[in-house]
Amino acid sequence: MHIRGDHVELVVGGRLDVRSAADARTVLHSAVDEGAGDLVLDLSELDSWDATGLGVIMGAHRRAGRCGRRLVLRGVPPQMQRLLVATRLHRILAIEGGIGVDTLPRV
To answer: What are the pLDDT digits (tens) for 66-81?
Structure first.
């Protein structure tokens, strides 16, 4: 997993899973704490995530809310969009462009 960017926009790539969760959490929390306004999390380079990785994103979402910020997801890959819809988190998280639930491929 790699994360690059600043307190306004971060690009996450690789795998966001139990092995990378602690490092990702540290970077995301620092970015939330050091900035103001929306924090854009670009997931277009993300290969996969598991429940722990999703928990890291939800934790960053909650922390941003407590700091008066908003976490915005950008470039969410289709397989991850399906997971957000299945867990109904697409109703809670801010997703740039939204998720076209009807256009997602069925599995």
So the answer is: 999 999 999 999 989 9
